[in-house]
Amino acid sequence: MEHSLLNIRKIQKINSLDIRAETKVIDFLPQALKLKWQWAGHIARLTNNSWTKKVTTWTGPKGKRKRGRPKSKWADDICRIAGTDWVKKASQRGSWKALEEAYTRKGFSSTLDK
Q: What segments bear the compositional bias annotation Basic residues (predicted)?
């Protein structure tokens, strides 16, 4: 997309970081991870027993699971950074904000490794 904005062809071999600096387009992955982290903190700090909080913190049915790999849940990658008690940690805004940077960097670095 940025190539077409600046009318640059691949054969010109201009670095993508230079093109991104020129167009000032925000990279979507860190932004999406940041918004997800902030939304998780917002949900965890809800005081009422709303449907949103119930669905997010639901652990699932007890007993035997189906065969195969377990399905990933929305909060699984949040649990990897903040731990399984992420709902309690989110009530402290200062520490939750500090963990946000670790979460966005982790997500960004894991996509670069692939």
A: 62-72
> CA 74, 76, 82: angle at the middle one, nearest 5?
120
**Residue span of the structural domain in which 39 resides:** 27-57+72-113
Question: Which two three-digit tokens encode residue 79?
Answer: 């649990």
Q: Identify whether 11 is part of a domain.
A: no
State the helix-helix crossing angle for 28-44 and 93-113, rounded to 10 degrees.
150
- For residue range 46-58, list pLDDT tens digits in order: 887 888 888 888 8
Q: How distant, in Å, are the alpha carbons of 2, 5, 79, 92 from that of 25?
A: 8, 11, 30, 32
User: What total number of domains does the chain contain?
Assistant: 1
Q: For the residues 56-75, what does the mean pLDDT come to?
A: 83
